[in-house]
C-alpha cells in the first residue's frame, strides 16, 4: 500500500510449519505471533487491530502492521527492530544474543498519563493502547488467563472452607477476551456461575469456543437454571445479556429476599477504560457513537454506573458473600463515580495470588509454531513428567488437555515458578532438536507476573512495605531479560487497570532446537521469575526470602 491508498483490514492468520521466510527463528516467531494475535479466532475485534482488553492493539495501523511484517522478514540475525506503540521506527545492528524486537507501548510522562491526553495523542496517530499481551504479541486467546482464573477460584473455594465450588453460585460480569475464561474456570472447579454481558455476540462466542455452557436474554430463565444447578451441586455456566450495573442490583434484591443465594461475586467488564464500559441508559447500538461524540460526558455516565455496580457488590459482601475485584480497576472508577465504599472488598492479588508471586510463580505459556496440536499434547506430557509431584499442575494439564479449545496457534499455559520454568524451556528445546516436535516452540508469559509489573490496584496492591507504586521493578525486569537473551522484550504503560495506573514488562523466548537457544532459555527463564522473588524479598515477604535461600538467588542485602 502507498500513502495514497491506505492499507485496509484483512483476515490474518500466522503461517504454520517448520519452514521460515525470516532469517532467524527469533524474527519469524515475532512475526507469527503478531499475526496470531490478529487471527479472527484469537482477536476480539481484528478489523480494528484490537486483540482484547477494551482497545488493546497489536499494531498502530494496517500500514504499520505491513511494515512490521516486511521488516521482520528482512531483519538480519544480528539486528534489532524497535517498535514504538505499534509502529516500526528503526532497525539497528546489535548481536545474536540481543532481542530481535524491542517494544515500548503507551508510555507517557507521569503528569500527562491520563486517558484524555492519551486519546488526544492516539487520535493524532502518535500512540496506541498495547494492553499487556496485545501489543507485545503473546496473547493466546482466552486460555491465556484460564489457569490463573481457575487457580483464583480454587483459592476462593479454600477461603470458603471448601474442597471445590460444588453447591455454590458465582455471579460475575464481562465475557470478553479475558473475562470469558471465568465461566469455564468456575465449572472446572465444580461450581455454578451466572455471567452478565451487554454484548450478546461475546456470550455467543464463548459458547462456540467451549468457555460457556449456554446463554439467554431472559434473566428469569437464567436465574432458574443456576439456582437449580447450585441446589443439585452441578457445574453449570449460564450467560445472560444485560447491563451488569442493573442486573447486579436486581439480583442483590432477590438475594436479600431469599429468592436466590449468591456465594461469590466478582466482575471483569472492561472497567479500566470508561469508554469500554457501557453505562446504564445508553443503548448497546449507540455505544461507540456516544463515546466518540462526548468522551467526557460518557466517562461520567460510565463511572456513575460503575458506582451502582460496585455498590451492589458491596451489598453482596455485607450480606455475607465472598467478593473481590478481578483486576479491572472497577473500584477506583466507582470511587470517581461517587461511591465511597468502593474499596470495601479486596483485589484478587492480595487476597489469593501473592504467596505464589513470592515464589516467582506466574503464567508461563508456550505456543507451537508448527500449528500441530499434537506438539502441545507432547509438551503437556513432558511438563507432567518434569513435575510429577505437583498434583495441582498435573490435574490442570489433564483438565486443560480435555477442556481447552485452541484459538489460533495451539498453545498451553501453566503456572511455574523460579528454578522451574527453565527446566520446561530446556526440555522443549531438546524435543525440537530431536525432531519429536514438528516445529519450534515460543515461550512467553503475561505481564501479570511476579516481577514484571507495578500496578497499585492489582498486582502490587497492598505490598507489605507500601511500595505499591514503585515502577523501577518492571523496568529492571525488562532490562535483565534484554541482557539475558530474550527474543523480544516490551515495556508498557496502562495495561490491565488503565492509563496512569500501571507500568509492566514482557519477554518472549524461542526454543528452536539450537545450542544457542538452550543457553538463552536457561538464562531468561531463570532470571525472569527470579526478579519476582527478588521483588518480594525486597518488600519483606518471608516466603520469598526462604525461596531465595533454598534455590540460590543472590540478593545482596538479604541477610544483612
Ligand atoms: P474485553 O474488552 O474483551 O471484554 C469486556 C466485556 O465487558 C465486553 O464483552 C463488554 O461487552 C462487557 N461490558 C462492558 N460494559 C458492560 C456492562 N456495563 N455490563 C456488562 N458487560 C459489559 O476485555 P477483557 O480482555 O475480557 O478484559 C476485561 C477486564 O479485565 C479489563 O479491564 C482487563 O484489563 C481486565 N483484566 C484482568 C485480568 C486478570 O487477571 N484479572 C487479566 C486481563 C484483563
UniProtKB/TrEMBL annotation:
It is an enzyme of class 4 (lyase). Binds 1 NAD(+) per subunit. NAD(+) binds at residues 53-54, 131, 177-179, 197, 202, 243-244, 268-272, 277-278, 326, 496. It is found in: Cytoplasm. Its main location: cytoplasm. Its EC number is 4.2.1.49. The active site is at residue 414. One of its GO terms (molecular function) is urocanate hydratase activity. Residues 1-23 are annotated as: Disordered. Pathway: Amino-acid degradation; L-histidine degradation into L-glutamate; N-formimidoyl-L-glutamate from L-histidine: step 2/3. Keywords: Cytoplasm, Histidine metabolism, Lyase, NAD. The keyword NAD applies. It comes from the Bacteria. Catalyzes the conversion of urocanate to 4-imidazolone-5-propionate. HAMAP family: HutU. PANTHER family: UROCANATE HYDRATASE. This is Urocanate hydratase. It comes from Microbacterium insulae. The lineage of its organism: Bacteria, Bacillati, Actinomycetota, Actinomycetes, Micrococcales. The gene is hutU.
Amino acid at each position: 500500500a502507498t500513502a495514497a491508498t491506505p492499507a485496509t483490514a484483512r483476515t490474518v492468520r500466522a503461517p504454520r510449519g517448520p519452514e521460515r521466510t525470516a532469517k532467524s527463528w527469533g524474527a519469524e516467531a515475532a512475526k507469527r505471533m503478531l499475526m496470531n494475535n490478529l487471527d479472527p479466532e484469537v482477536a476480539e475485534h481484528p478489523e480494528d487491530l484490537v486483540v482484547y482488553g477494551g482497545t488493546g492493539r497489536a499494531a498502530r495501523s494496517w500500514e504499520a502492521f505491513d511494515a512490521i511484517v516486511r521488516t521482520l522478514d528482512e531483519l538480519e540475525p544480528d539486528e534489532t527492530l524497535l517498535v514504538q506503540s505499534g509502529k516500526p521506527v528503526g532497525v539497528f545492528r546489535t548481536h545474536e544474543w540481543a532481542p530481535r524486537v524491542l517494544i515500548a507501548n503507551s508510555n507517557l510522562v507521569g503528569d500527562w498519563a491520563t486517558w484524555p491526553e492519551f486519546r488526544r495523542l492516539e487520535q493524532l496517530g502518535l500512540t496506541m493502547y498495547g494492553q499487556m499481551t496485545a501489543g507485545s504479541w503473546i496473547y493466546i486467546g482466552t486460555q491465556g488467563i484460564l489457569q490463573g482464573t481457575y487457580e483464583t477460584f480454587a483459592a476462593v473455594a479454600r477461603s470458603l472452607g471448601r474442597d471445590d465450588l460444588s453447591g455454590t453460585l458465582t455471579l460475575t460480569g464481562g465475557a470478553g477476551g479475558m473475562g470469558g475464561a471465568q465461566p469455564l474456570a468456575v465449572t472446572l472447579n465444580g461450581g455454578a456461575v451466572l455471567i452478565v454481558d451487554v454484548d450478546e455476540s461475546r456470550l455467543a462466542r464463548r459458547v462456540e469456543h467451549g468457555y460457556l455452557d449456554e446463554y439467554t436474554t431472559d434473566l428469569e430463565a437464567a436465574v432458574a437454571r443456576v439456582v437449580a444447578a447450585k441446589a443439585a451441586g452441578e457445574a453449570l455456566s449460564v450467560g445472560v445479556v444485560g447491563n451488569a450495573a442493573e442486573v447486579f442490583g436486581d439480583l442483590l434484591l432477590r438475594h436479600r429476599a431469599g429468592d436466590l443465594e449468591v456465594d461469590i461475586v466478582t466482575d471483569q467488564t472492561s472497567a479500566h477504560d470508561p469508554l469500554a464500559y457501557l453505562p446504564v441508559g445508553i443503548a448497546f447500538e449507540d455505544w461507540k457513537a456516544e463515546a466518540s461524540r462526548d468522551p467526557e460526558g460518557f466517562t461520567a455516565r460510565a463511572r456513575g454506573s460503575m458506582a451502582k455496580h460496585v455498590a451492589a457488590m458491596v451489598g453482596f459482601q455485607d450480606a455475607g458473600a465472598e467478593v473481590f475485584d478481578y483486576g479491572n480497576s472497577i473500584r477506583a472508577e466507582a470511587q470517581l463515580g461517587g461511591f465511597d465504599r468502593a474499596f470495601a472488598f479486596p483485589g484478587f492479588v492480595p487476597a489469593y495470588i501473592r504467596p505464589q508471586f513470592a515464589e516467582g510463580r506466574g503464567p508461563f505459556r508456550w505456543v507451537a509454531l508448527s500449528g500441530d496440536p499434537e506438539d502441545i499434547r507432547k509438551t503437556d506430557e513432558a511438563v507432567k513428567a518434569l513435575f510429577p509431584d505437583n498434583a495441582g499442575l498435573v490435574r490442570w494439564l489433564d483438565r486443560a488437555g480435555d477442556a481447552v479449545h485452541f484459538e489460533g496457534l495451539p498453545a498451553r499455559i501453566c503456572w511455574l515458578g523460579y528454578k522451574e520454568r527453565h527446566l520446561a524451556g530446556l526440555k522443549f528445546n531438546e524435543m525440537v532438536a530431536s525432531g519429536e516436535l514438528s516445529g519450534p516452540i515460543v515461550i512467553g508469559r503475561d505481564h501479570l507476573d511476579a516481577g514484571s509489573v507495578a500496578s497499585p490496584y492489582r498486582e502490587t496492591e497492598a505490598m507489605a512495605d507500601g511500595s505499591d507504586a514503585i515502577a523501577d521493578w518492571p523496568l529492571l525486569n525488562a532490562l535483565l531479560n534484554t541482557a539475558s537473551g530474550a527474543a523480544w522484550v516490551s515495556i508498557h504503560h496502562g495495561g490491565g487497570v488503565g492509563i496512569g495506573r500501571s507500568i509492566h514488562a514482557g519477554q518472549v523466548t524461542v526454543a528452536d532446537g539450537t545450542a544457542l537457544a538452550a543457553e538463552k532459555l536457561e538464562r531468561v527463564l531463570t532470571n525472569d521469575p527470579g526478579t519476582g522473588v527478588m521483588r518480594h524479598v525486597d518488600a519483606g515477604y518471608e516466603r520469598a526470602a526462604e525461596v531465595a535461600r533454598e534455590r540460590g538467588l543472590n540478593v545482596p542485602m538479604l541477610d544483612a
